[in-house]
Amino acid sequence: MLNLEKQNEIRKQILDFSESMLLKRNVGANRTWRFSLERFVDFINDKGLDFDVGAVNEYIGYLEGKEMGRSDIQRVVEVIFSFGEFVNIPLDKGRVNFKFADKLDPVTVLEEDIIRTEKVLYEAVVTGEEGDFGKKRDTMRNYLMFRLILETGMDTLELIRLDTDSLQDNGLLMIHDREVPLSQGLQDLIREYISFRKKYDESLFMDQVAFEVNSLKGSNDLQQDRELEQFYRLALPEKLEKIELLLGEQMRLEEEVLQLEMLDDGENDEKIAELEDEIDSIVERINERKSVLVLERKTGEYEFNPAMFVMEGYHRLVEDVVEEILKMEAFPVQLLQYSAAEKWEKAGIKPNLINQFLGNKGSIFGGTASIADFKQIIEAGFSFTKRSFQ
Q: Domain of life, per the record (predicted)?
């Protein structure tokens, strides 16, 4: 049996293992690996077992008793053995009472893991640092992408094509060439997210531009330098005149340094050093003022980005970034899609209706579904606690 210290050590190792596999982009690695290992550790602790092959065999029997599919059991066992290698706990695969298959059924996520991950993603939104609006926008985005894929089964291309006006007043979401209903809870969250963006996107854009011009660390830094603040408030011709005056002063001091250096008698080294420090200070002031001009020009270029989801640079999200975000923060997109479809099928939704809901072309089933039919799919899907981003 694992004592408390050993349990805590293994749980930390599980976290390290999961993060390591994700960062290394290990084939098949996803958040289910961590959840599977944690459930195995809970099992052997409850049974008073050690982390060995005997415990693995007992766990296989337990999973078979719960009628878990053989492909899913095999994946769990393979993760346990991979973890054993990671922490140098030798496990002999040849002693496992299980016949391993070469071909596995499509992987899906257990409902308890879906619910658990939804909670983690939501808490990332509401427990973020106060005033960090950029982080909050990103965590809301990540949560909504997770929910939208589970609720609609959409793929990454459809997801990145969404605009802020894709959600219509009647609660229908326009996905490329079709309309699908959304649960009321998800509609409300999307509207909260859009309202948040319309309120804060411009200030986030300005802060980002300020970072890009390097000499300013954020738009609020202008308030911390009175002289720079006064410069910021001048009209453009006056700004240019101020910069020209500084350039003139820089040239005058550089000429004075040059004349002193030509004397080459060593008596003016201290004076030259003072002048060079003064020149450096003027150059810094000039660069700061140039940065203000760049900031003003770029800020004037701001337009609200109508894309539903944006990324660094205030650009529309792209497919590979969606894949990376969801793999690191939740589960791979395809895994979420499979899990959503499996949930609908188990609820008795006919393949014909699912195919039309997903917008599959050339379906052999034919037929035309109504919005009421599609609502059956929404109701049959995963159910989450009512949330608010406020």
A: Bacteria
Strands (E), the chain: 172-175, 178-181, 310-311, 315-316
Taking 70 as the threshold, does the pLDDT of residue 78 lie above it? yes
Phi, psi angles (nearest 5°) of residue 34: -65, -45
Termini Cα distance of the chain: 45
Judge whether residue 346 has pLDDT over 70. Answer: yes
Q: Is 60 exceeded by the pLDDT of residue 281?
A: yes
- Contact between 185 and 384 under an 8 Å Cβ cutoff? The reply is yes
Which CATH number does 4-95 carry?
1.10.150
The answer to whether 289 touches 234, Cβ cutoff 8 Å, is no
Whole-model pTM: value is 0.75
Alpha-carbon distances, residue 225 vs 114, 132, 229, 343 (angstroms): 50, 23, 6, 58
Give me the pLDDT at residue 361, please.
55
Phi, psi (deg, nearest 5) at residue 276: -65, -35
Residue ranges of domains in the chain: 4-95, 116-209+312-380, 219-299
Task: Report whether 125 contacts 389 (CB < 8 A).
Answer: yes
**Element (DSSP H or E) covering residue 276:** helix 269-299
DSSP 44-104: HHHHT--SSHHHHHHHHHHHHHTT--HHHHHHHHHHHHHHHHHTT----GGG-SS---SS-
